[in-house]
Amino acid sequence: MFPLNRPIEDWHGKRLWIIGASSGIGASIASQALNAGAKVALSARREEQLQAVAGGRPDAFAIAFDVLDEQSWSDAHCQIRQRMGGVDLVIFCAAEYRPERIWEVTPSGSRRTLGVNLGSLYAGLAAILPDMLERGTGGIAIVASVAGWIGLPKASVYGPSKAALINLAEILYSDLRPRGLDVYLINPGFVSTQLTARNDFHMPALQTPDDAASVILRGIAAGRFEIHFPWRFTLLVKLVRMLPYRLRFALIGQLIKT
Fold first, then answer.
1. Residue 211 burial class via C-beta count within 10 angstroms: exposed 0-12, middle 13-18, buried 19 and up
2. Nearest-CA neighbor of 143 among 89, 216, 215?
3. What is the CATH number assigned to the segment(s) 15-257?
4. Hey, is 23 helix, strand or coil?
5. Which of 4, 100, 122, 234 is the most exposed place for a label (fewest CB within 10 A)?
6. Distance (Å, rounded) from C-alpha 94 to C-alpha 117?
């Protein structure tokens, strides 16, 4: 079968902008992409941690800003274009997560989670897309989650935000692929990060950020639209999603405990 996106045969010289690159999956993607020869702009709020990930490498460019500040997106994109000449692939990794039952959700907390996980992408796309559309080339990668496939306990705001990202990625593909742009949807299972460290339940098939980054970069290079992992967990969740609600609800709790 033909891939839905154009394969990438060599990362050398590719210009990446990774949002949420100060830790976790984003930091690992940045490090591995740099090791593969890419030029990488790293963004997040924490300047010191971005510089630590960059490690003084000449092809790494750190620019710190808050994704909730709409104007900062345009300013950052302008600086990156001046520094690297443009962007070939943007990877949206920034995320906010609080494990909480629905009765624990606060309006302010939900607004922040939805703003970081979903709303900020619209500001980012507004800044990034005009240049890519003018050139007729480029790629957008969105890190969603298997939590967007199915309603999981304690993902009261995080899960809906990731479900929206999955829907958005599908819309972006339909709109942008005919215009020459590539779109990637990344649905990880549980990955050991500062966010998942907040969970108080067993996380099946837990992966390291480095493992996750390797799968993501291989999937993008292969031109896949949806990149989900680890398969031993994600395929099970896909199966549960197909069941009638009576069976699905009965299995969800057991799935998390496995």
1. middle
2. 216
3. 3.40.50.720
4. coil
5. 122
6. 7
Nearest to residue 191, comparing CAs of 17, 27, 64? 27
Structure tokens at 193: 């990060």
Q: Give per-residue pLDDT as tens, 171-207.
A: 999 999 999 999 999 999 999 988 888 988 888 899 9
CB within 8 Å of 5: residues ≥ 6 apart: 139, 177, 182, 183, 184, 220, 223, 224, 225
Q: Which token pair is 162?
A: 């990731």
pTM tops 0.85? yes
For residue 209, which of 26, 19, 21 has the smallest C-alpha distance? 26
Domain residue spans in the chain?
Answer: 15-257
Q: By three-state DSSP, how is residue 19 classified?
A: strand
The predicted pLDDT at position 258 comes to: 47
